[in-house]
């Protein structure tokens, strides 16, 4: 039986005639809440470790557990929830986020804390897998790049806010207060989503095997490979940005904080700019962003080191990479419009794998060549990724009526 029978046509894959912008903003709030919760432990490792009686390395596994669970959740959750109204699923993710933060705040041991972080990983991976698919059902096709840029602006805001917020609240009231604050953000998000999200009938087609079927479509595998290369290079760079800046210019803690704040602010601007660029030239945007990041990385290594110069290059890098999540989600929505959730899960798994590969590969290169070798190698990899995307990756285009052409143009 077709699940769409009892729902309005707009929820059954028919493009909406008017955009539901308030619902889009509620998804951006969800992104902000999820990213803030994911990154909080990074700024609270020392007090968490002391309070729980473990090493900082063990406390850091709170981030690792979330990332690993998110990888599998991105692949499995769309299929496991394929018969459920997507509105209810999204509200469920926000509820899991609230529960995770509250239970972490009151955890009595590291084991309990890690178990509670699993809940966040499920919400994180599940949300990312559905973000583009849900956006397609909230706005007309021509407005999709703008909607995605709004949704993913939550990444930049969360990245900028999470670490200083955690440090500030942790210093004043203890590390647990930061997670209580994150839970409060989740409550506001849940209420906003409850009010603004329309009913979104399940399509009932997402299954794990569908991910493989999507990957085998012409042009999809090479596109995902390009996505993995870009994210691997970025996280090889970003993981080791602090030792690089400290070793080249001797910047202090306050100066480093200001430079990273500039990176985050530029990242937010880049996320918003990406929407307009994708409307004009989606394929060109996919190529341009890794080119700019690669050039910035190489310039950081090859040009004479100075604080103003490195701050400007860091801002260029942040702005360019700000549009990467938007661009690849837009590519998925255009390339696989009939299986956007399964393709979204594939992107989640690819990005999470790239995070691990980038950090591990960067660490191996760091030990062999030093920090300069990390930036040189990752910068070259970023430019090679841009070349691959320019030569092999294709993006379907909208026709005059605003609908997407068949993905045959990916070949």
UniProtKB/TrEMBL annotation:
Stretches assigned to the Major facilitator superfamily (MFS) profile domain: 23-397
Q: Name one GO molecular function term.
A: transmembrane transporter activity
Q: Which GO terms describe its cellular component?
A: plasma membrane
Enumerate the transmembrane spans: 20-37, 57-76, 88-108, 114-135, 147-169, 175-197, 218-241, 256-279, 286-305, 311-333, 345-365, 371-391
Predominant location category: membrane
The record's subcellular locations are: Cell membrane
* Signal peptide start-end: none
Q: How does it sit in the membrane?
A: Multi-pass membrane protein
Q: Which domain of life is it from?
A: Bacteria
Which InterPro entries does the UniProt record give? MFS, MFS_dom, MFS_Efflux_Transporters, MFS_trans_sf
Record keyword Ribonucleoprotein present? no
Listed A to Z, the keywords are:
Cell membrane, Membrane, Transmembrane, Transmembrane helix
Report the protein name in the record.
Predicted arabinose efflux permease, MFS family
């Amino acid at each position: 039986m077709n699940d769409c029978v009892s729902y309005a046509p707009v929820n059954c894959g028919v493009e909406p005639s008017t955009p539901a912008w308030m619902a889009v903003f509620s998804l951006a709030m969800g992104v902000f809440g999820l990213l803030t919760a994911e990154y909080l432990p990074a700024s609270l490792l020392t007090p968490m470790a002391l309070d729980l009686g473990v090493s900082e390395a063990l406390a850091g596994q709170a981030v690792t557990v979330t990332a690993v669970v998110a990888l599998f959740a991105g692949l499995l959750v769309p299929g496991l929830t394929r018969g459920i109204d997507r509105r209810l699923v999204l509200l469920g993710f926000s509820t899991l986020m609230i529960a995770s933060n509250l239970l972490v705040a009151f955890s009595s041991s590291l084991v309990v804390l890690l178990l509670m972080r699993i809940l966040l990983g499920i919400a994180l991976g599940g949300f990312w897998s559905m973000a583009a698919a849900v956006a397609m059902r909230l706005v007309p096709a021509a407005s999709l790049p703008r909607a995605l840029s709004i949704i993913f602006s939550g990444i930049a805001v969360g990245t900028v806010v999470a670490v200083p917020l955690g440090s500030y609240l942790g210093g004043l009231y203890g590390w647990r207060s930061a997670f209580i604050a994150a839970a409060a953000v989740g409550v506001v998000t849940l209420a906003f989503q409850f009010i603004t999200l329309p009913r979104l009938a399940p399509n009932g087609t997402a299954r794990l095997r569908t991910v493989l079927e999507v990957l085998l479509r012409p042009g999809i595998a090479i596109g995902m490979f390009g996505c993995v290369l870009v994210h691997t290079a970025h996280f090889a760079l970003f993981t080791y940005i602090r030792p690089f800046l400290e070793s080249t210019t001797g910047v202090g803690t306050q100066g480093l904080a200001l430079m990273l704040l500039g990176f985050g602010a530029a990242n937010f601007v880049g996320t918003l700019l990406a929407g307009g660029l994708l409307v004009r030239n989606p394929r060109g945007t996919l190529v341009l962003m890794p080119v700019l990041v690669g050039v910035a990385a190489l310039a950081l290594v090859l040009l004479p080191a100075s604080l103003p110069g490195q701050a400007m290059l860091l801002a260029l890098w942040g702005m360019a990479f700000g549009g990467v999540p938007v661009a690849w989600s837009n590519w998925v929505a255009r390339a696989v419009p009939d299986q956007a959730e399964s393709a979204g899960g594939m992107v989640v798994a690819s990005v999470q794998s790239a995070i691990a590969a980038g950090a591990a590969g960067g660490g191996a290169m760091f030990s062999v060549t030093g920090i300069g070798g990390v930036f040189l190698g990752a910068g070259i990899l970023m430019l090679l990724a841009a070349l691959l995307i320019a030569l092999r990756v294709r993006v379907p285009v909208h026709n005059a009526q605003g609908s997407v052409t068949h993905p045959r143009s990916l070949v």
